[in-house]
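haha ok so turns out i had the wrong file open the whole time. this is the CORRECT one, sorry everyone. sequence first:
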Amino acid sequence: MNNGVLIGLSRMMALGRELEVVSNNIANINTTGYKADSAIFQEFLSPGADHGDFQGGDRRLSYVHDRATWHDFSPGTIKLTGNPLDVALEGDVFFVVQTPRGVRYTRNGAFQLNSTGTLVTNEGYEVQGDGGAIRFQVNDNQIAIAEDGTIRVHEGADNKSDAQRGKLQLVRFDQAALLQKDGSSLFVAPAGAQSQAPQAPQRWRVVQGGLEQSNVRGVVEMSRMIEITRSYTAVAGVLQQHSDMRRNAIDKLSEVPA
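then structure:
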């Protein structure tokens, strides 16, 4: 297999990877708290097809290297729902949830109460407060969540007794780019990403009765998908032409003169 085919295949593999990323973004365009992904590619320069029998110096070969995928943490729009257990975040902070795989972080504030009165995500994971899981009593009503995450309720039949049920645990990361996705809206922090409590309340706030929508830009992603598909088709066409040329050359060379 010659260098031209290898270079073309490296480009097709990169386009295939990028198409997977774009397709996943489009599939999660309506996922609450979803953060779009983008692929990072790099030019890989090979010193060339060096051989002692070649005359002169070889040209360097340029391949496409699939380097990484990065997450776009720009905020999505907040859609007001009126549900007191729907919570959105403004600023660079995350909710903390406990899963069977360990602590995870999310921007998806579509919370609900399970059968034991514990505040959980729509997957059933416990939402963490400053003192652990947040639990409500049977007679709690009129749930109010302040901008700092403090949760208060009216309890009792007369609805006059005010009680606090906890405070949402919020964290931020100086190196949020190191976070890794674990599902559609959960993130896991590797060893190099240390969480910390946000110190400047004026830079973030909790919005009760709203949900942060996906930050995927549908028109941009669809346009990108069309562009990738066309590029893939073009490269495939070039490789097919190259294959046809080689086959014709071999056929000509193999012809025996009459």
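The longest strand covers residues 61-71.
again sry for the mixup
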